[in-house]
Write a structure and sequence with these properties.
It is built from six helices and nine strands; from the N terminus they run ββαβαβαβαβαβαββ. By secondary structure, it is of the alpha/beta class. The longest helix has 11 residues, at 158-168.
């Protein structure tokens, strides 16, 4: 009964709407801790790689007062999210754009930023550079936190460490943890 969004390659799950309850049992649930890690209820959240709106749907139930900007490169994915995955959080505003270009042209600052953008099976290289993370840091409020979903096969986790090392060039505190078999979450804190 779960509704699942698979894209082109058909293997990875890009969004999920559980048949029962709100929690997905997958890495998206970890993002709901971000307001607490940022020091309190989040006033605003940015999701780069919004896909079908799983994070926004979770926040609608757990942090309903959070304003969310979602950036998704493919308008058909956003349309599928609205039609099939319950992407109807009234506090979500979706922008159709490439994540890095959108950040370069925007000014808002956020309490938390989620990076969950993939050109399967990889994070686009330009979303994993020191320059990109410096751009992300400029969009965070003092005390803000960024969370990156790093998907890898269970026995090939070197990329997680490489992403964390790159983030350490920008953020004074970086932590990472395996959340489920194929996904790690790497956190970067402004303080």
């Amino acid at each position: 009964g779960d509704r699942v969004l698979h894209l082109n390659e058909g293997w990875a799950v890009h969004s999920l709407l559980p048949a029962r309850g709100i929690l997905t049992g997958n890495y998206w649930d970890a993002f709901t801790a971000l307001p607490t890690l940022a020091g309190g209820p989040a006033g605003n959240l940015l999701v780069l790689g919004n896909a079908g709106g799983t994070v926004a749907t979770l926040f609608a139930h757990i942090w309903p007062n959070t304003a969310i900007d979602g950036v998704e490169i493919d308008p058909l994915v956003s349309s599928a999210g609205r039609r099939f995955l319950g992407m109807n959080n009234p506090r979500l505003h979706v922008y159709t754009a490439d994540a890095r270009f959108w950040l370069e042209g925007s000014r808002p600052r956020y309490d938390a930023i989620v990076i969950d953008a993939y050109a399967q099976p990889y994070i686009p290289f330009y979303l994993a550079t020191r320059e990109f993370f410096a751009l992300v840091a400029r969009h965070l409020q003092p005390g803000g936190v960024v969370a990156v979903n790093v998907g890898t096969p269970p026995d090939q986790t070197a990329l997680v460490g490489r992403i964390a090392t790159t983030m350490r060039a920008v953020f004074p505190t970086v932590m990472g943890a395996r959340y489920v078999s194929f996904n790690s979450i790497v956190l970067g804190f402004v303080r």
